[in-house]
């Protein structure tokens, strides 16, 4: 029994190939089929909607948690990422900066050209990682001590690296709380009290900037993370202009 070959549409045309006259060199000799339209591919039924136990999962977001040393950025960001109802990555700038071992620019030695270069490299690396996570459906929370008096280098740089949808949130407890928390830190992440006070004073410039500011002076990590979740939810529902 001979197989009947149906005409194959030329690539990209979406129309049947023209029928060749009987007896031509390329004819198959099979019975000629009457002309007709392409048979549409049946649309499969939609998959059943699988609802989350506690409602729809949160949307994919990229949050930048800003604050001075000792504000609790890393602890809050990690807890927030751990407890969200959607895949979320925590990308810490300090962690990435400390990937450099030999030749690491210790922040306790002051801000130098080398520390500036390592900071910029770490920020680009964090931004690249955040974009990759977001492209694969995973939200991100980043943390960094971004200064309001350097908007192009700080906040503007993060937006360039991560994208315009970045949501900055300032974590700014009182000075006494910051000094007490900094005293509990160790290694290169513990700064002198004078440096912590100077950074905290510069961070006050975020007031009046339009960015949401969380004062977690009297709140633990879990409570602050819930406050952050509320701020992010409001920003998604009504994106602020910053």
TrEMBL record:
Residues 1-46 are annotated as: Disordered. It comes from the Bacteria. InterPro entries: P-loop_NTPase. This is AAA family ATPase. The lineage of its organism: Bacteria, Bacillati, Actinomycetota, Actinomycetes, Kitasatosporales.
